[in-house]
Amino acid sequence: MVRFSVRRTAQVVSSIARKLPQEALRLASIPCMSQASSSWEICNRSRWKVPRAVTSLLEGKCRCNSFSTVPLEEVVVVVGEKEERIDLTQYPPHLVRNFSIIAHVDHGKSTLADRLLELTGTIRKGLGQPQFLDKLQVERERGITVKAQTATMFYNYGSGGIGSSPGRFLLNLIDTPGHVDFSYEVSRSLAACQGVLLLVDAAQGVQAQTVANFFLAFEADLAIIPVINKIDQLNADPEGVKTQLKTMFDIDPQKVLLTSAKTGQGLEHVLPAVIERIPHPKGVVNAPLRMLLLDSYYDEYKGVICHVAIVDGVLKRGEKIESAVTRQRYDVMDIGILYPELTPTGILLTGQVGYVVSGMRSTHEARIGDTLYQASMVVEPLPGFKPAKHMVFAGVYPADGSDYDALCHAIERLTCNDASVSVTKESSGALGIGFRCGFLGLLHMDVFHQRLEQEHGAQVITTTPTVPYIFEYADGSKLNVQNPAALTSNSGKRILTCWEPTVMATIITPSEYVGSLMTLCSERRGQQIEYSFVDGQRAMLKYRLPLCEVVIDFYNELKSITSGYASFDYEEAEYQSSDLVKLDVLLNGQAVDALATIVHRSKAHRIGRELCDKLKNVLDRQMFEVAIQAAIGSKVVARETIPAMRKNVLAKCYGGDVSRKRKLLEKQKEGKKRMKRVGSVDIPQEAFHSLLKTSKV
């Protein structure tokens, strides 16, 4: 048996042990701590032998006893004077609880997850970064959760003791995003849970995304535990929030938990409530294996790492599994839990959530929502997930055409971790070969762009976002348009009806801003559906709005009008007929397909003027005159002109007849005309960034 103390976590140690001897030098270089509060033992239960040179090196650097083997099956965690063996066979389904935290954005989900991890000893208090489960750089920069993250905890409940006693429970926690654009992440997380913590800010009260997430959990028939957070704030009103929960969701105020994740107040009641109120998984232990593929990401060394939930049966390392979608078979090379990092256990049982490394090398093999089962067995596939409904489409092109292959590789890796993005190849006359990507919203698109740059070093140009339209022609044919350039202005076929997607928007706002918000929704062609009061100070508005009026800057204007106090959420509604036209942008008479857009006829002139004005400010002057036009078919609705850079040909004429001056000017004019016929205008990347910010497109 080998004992050593390091600054790293058990997951790092176990992963290094699995890579010996290649990583032995890295382990040996880790400095030891003589008074370390945590130490890790690795039991010699494996068959793999460590070379004598590596043994002596470890003995010298890490003050270890001599050893000849390194375990791969079991990790013994020593915390203080107590030993904790991770043996998942001691946790049958009735000792397992799977739950998620759902809330409006910035109501304290990630902070509460930190406190629960500390309370159960999963992470040490004061070590590591705040919002431990927010691992992406974009999450830490923006202060929001983008990806749902899973962590396994062990909790002694009631009079239970240590180890496999009846009072010890395995808890799987999933921290979810709060922004409406990432509701697909929330719905996927709920598929692996039997209950949720509905978190509400004690000062802000029930918000729009709180309502949306509640009904997601309610429709999934999950147990809901209401938790009021941030009760330590001076402006906290927990009793008022209890009244809101009772009015809107019919939640008994006596069942509401009061906590402060920042100070730790009331947290001792959260996990007992999870165990008491949330049912255990209903799977069958002795049934054939069925597991649900929840998420995946790509690792350069291990390939695709899949996060799975075991619905029925047992999965062990070394077994063969098969995909219900692709019918491909894989060997289970590594399996374990997220505690909170990858921790090998060699087995996963019914109701447990963990990870599987099966040698998948292509991201196309990991289909989110797929059912994985033992090879050669016949099982009924699980329902899976609803397909993501893409609300916004945009073109993604490499800033340098030679970087296309690198961009293709980066998008393939990133879509493995973000299954809600759709990707198809397309080409543009102005931008070359690229991709048409579908997103759940504008923030989702912005985050995807930022992750491409930060995680993969890709420099990309993103075109103006559009929404999917349907055009119905007189001959009975229909055309689904995701890229405005695909709609021909003069196709020879008469358009009967244009259909645009709509959303059902929910706005919760202080009462004094109701009038201004009604005006904003009316300007965006909204139709009022409901107007009610949440309490004495706040009102709830429901509007049916065209999606194209929402995706660009509606949220920013709403926050500006209400000084940030209003919250906004929307859900998909049906298509509605509308008077839509294609607005082309012409440079010297040549259409730029990347700048084409589809707008409502009543706004075409204003939007055309804005586009021309912005282009005039970002395009460089040429040696010839550049005409910027916005046109509907053959009708020009707006124009701006960039004057040519010209030499003063009259500088040498100090006098003389006017005909001499006129002759020089005419000669210069003819030269400019020849340049205009053969010249081309380069559109810089800043032009597309500027157009992306065009208001009310």
TrEMBL record:
It is a peripheral membrane protein. It is found in: Mitochondrion inner membrane. Pfam families: EFG_C, GTP_EFTU, LepA_C. It catalyses: GTP + H2O = GDP + phosphate + H(+). InterPro entries: EF-4, EFG_III/V, EFG_V-like, G_TR_CS, LepA_C_sf, LepA_CTD, LepA_IV, P-loop_NTPase. Its EC number is 3.6.5.n1. Keywords: GTP-binding, Hydrolase, Membrane, Mitochondrion, Mitochondrion inner membrane, Nucleotide-binding, Protein biosynthesis. Residues 94-282 form the Tr-type G domain. It is an enzyme of class 3 (hydrolase). GTP binds at residues 103-110, 175-179, 229-232. It comes from the Eukaryota. Transmembrane segments: none annotated. Belongs to the GTP-binding elongation factor family. LepA subfamily. Promotes mitochondrial protein synthesis. May act as a fidelity factor of the translation reaction, by catalyzing a one-codon backward translocation of tRNAs on improperly translocated ribosomes. Binds to mitochondrial ribosomes in a GTP-dependent manner. PANTHER family: TRANSLATION FACTOR GUF1, MITOCHONDRIAL, TRANSLATION FACTOR GUF1-RELATED. This is Translation factor GUF1 homolog, mitochondrial. It comes from Sphagnum troendelagicum. The lineage of its organism: Eukaryota, Viridiplantae, Streptophyta, Embryophyta, Bryophyta.
